[in-house]
Amino acid sequence: MTISMYHASIPPIIRSLNNLIGILQKGLDYASAKNIEQTVLLNTRLYPDMFPLTKQVQIASDISCRGAARLAGLEPPVREDNETSFEELIERVKQTIAYLESIKPEQIDGSEEKMIDLPVKDQTFTFEGMPFLLIFVMPNVYFHVTTAYGILRHCGVELGKMDYLGKP
To answer: Over 80: is that where the pLDDT of 1 sits?
Structure first.
């Protein structure tokens, strides 16, 4: 049995983003229960030179949309990074999931060898579709979702491995 580019990308990313919503909801609930200003948690970093929670969620959202769009040959949605609450971050992730759900398998399947240019600051990296998905998109999504999880866990939010992995 083979796995398609669509099934290797969209369903796992959607699952990870749905789990991120649950993680963020637990962060919101924790802040409310402990009477902690949301901005305290949203601006927390694991280390001073790392991005804060808010930026981790924004990047997970952007990588998901942009990666899928590039594979499908679409222009990704542009979002301002202006979220200032858990509710807004959750809504952003929901919008990302809705965008991913709008992409059909036939738009991504067959993109294994498609050449994809990825502009990063003053450079452009070129990937074939499958390496782009497997060594750039998926690891980035997982990294930023994991880091968001780690920040909230570090702040005392009661999270466990199943919050990250989701229910089977």
So the answer is: no
Measured distance CA(159)–CA(85) in Å, rounded: 19
Long-range contact pairs involving 83-87 (C-beta distance under 8 Å, separation at least 24): 83/54, 83/57, 83/58, 84/38, 84/39, 84/42, 84/54, 85/38, 85/42, 86/24, 86/25, 86/27, 86/28, 86/31, 86/38, 86/41, 86/42, 87/28
Q: How many domains does the chain have?
A: 1
Please report, for the domain that includes residue 43, its CATH number: 1.20.120.450
Residue that the structure tokens 């796995």 belong to: 3
Q: Are 63 and 141 in contact (CB under 8 A)?
A: yes
pTM: 0.95
The total of other beta-carbon atoms located within 10 Å of residue 41's CB is 24
All residues at 6 or more sequence positions from 160 whose CB lies less than 8 Å from its CB, including other chains: none
Mean pLDDT (whole number) for 29-56: 98
* Distance between CA atoms of residues 17 and 58, nearest Å: 11
Residue 49, phi-psi category: left (phi > 0), alpha (psi -120 to 50), beta (remainder)? alpha
At residue 128, what are phi and psi to the nearest 5 degrees?
A: -80, 155
